[in-house]
Amino acid sequence: MARVWRCTGLRWSEDGPLLGWAGGRGSPLPQGKVVAFGVVSEGRRTCVGARGNPCPVRAGVPGRSIGARCEECARLDRAHSVAADTIADDPRPYHVYLAWFGPAQVKVGITAVERGSARLLEQGAVCFGWLGRGPLMATRRAEEMLRAALKVPDRIPYAEKRLVRADLPGVEERVGELAELHGRALGLAGWPESLEPVPFQAVDHFGVFGLGGLPAADGVVTELVAGGVVGGEVLAVAGPDLHLATGRGTVVLDTRLMTGWELTAPVGEGARDVLTVPVRELKSPGDGSVQDGLF
Question: Three-state DSSP class for 221?
Fold first, then answer.
């Protein structure tokens, strides 16, 4: 019987991105590495549970679900979540930040100071800068104020981030756009008194993600399926996304789609560039649309 693994998702370490596996092992994802796996043909995707606890009924979840959680576990996971704004008594200090993903793609957000830049790596922020540091509720107030005053969102869809990664402007333009917004933000009236402003200093992840020379994506995996195979060479890793060179062109795999499945090694040497899961074709931003069909 073939050995199977359960993926716990992509995480960022000091040494770069790792694919995590149940049991604690991690697989590094350097540029040029071949990623190849098959989905157990008799398997089904099951809920990953909530807050470190397994799903009590191992409920089935849809292949296109990013969270890989059933409704009950998703509710429990968000019941004590800063991201869901369901807690107000966290005593830890927080940062407010501006994150840049592409031209006119800037968002505001908050993250615990102790996490450092981990949250920005997880989101695929190409460039970012801290705005302030202080208590949770003060950073929340600042986040809301900046959204309203600067017209910057608190989230940008991954579909939009993926389309521009292969055609990003130089670091001067990236940093310049952030610096201009940073200055405007600190000049706003109503800045919370308990929030300490942070001088502008940009952190750039272009090289960390391996975006130099990245070809435009031809498609994006929409879901894994029982019996499906994914194989390709790592071109870049940004946030949860793997940009892979495959037999069907450059394809983006959101590693969050891997959780909840039983995975195994593919059969045959040629499987390393085989792709037999649903893929949606992409057009470049200049083409003005994204096709609905599969290829």
Answer: strand
